[in-house]
Amino acid sequence: MGEALEETMTTAPNPGDSCNNLALRKAARYLGATYDKALAPVGLRATQLSILQKLSVHGEMTITGLADVIAMDRTTMASNLKPLAREGLVTVEPSAADRRARIAAITPDGLTRMKTALPLWNAVQAQFEENFGADEAAHLRAYLDAVLHTGFEPWAE
After folding, report:
1. Distance between terminal CA atoms of the chain?
2. Rounded Cα distance, 12 and 31, in Å
């Protein structure tokens, strides 16, 4: 029995060697931790900065709309908004047009925090592009954006 198991382990394909998901998640964890560490002095994580940035550009948005823009499911987005709301960086209120929908908006404090975080984000962004290559980083972003258009519907109900 031990020999059969050993043979299976050495001859069976290793999904980790060719798994797109694993490769993407490893890189995402690595880069995410790098950006989170850079943003720690202003008390934000990279995802939180992305949320604040999108709200500063788009204005008020439904939680579902914001989740779509960031490619996140609605429930996870709602969870990510809670600490930002507790800190007074965003507001989340029922929509006047549709009481079932909730509207998120950046507050003046959220805008200030985002602007304070941007130089830290710019520094790590520049360092990554210097180490990885600016052209390569641009290609990487384009490839990753293309992944979002491969026909999957991970959050469809």
Report:
1. 44
2. 31
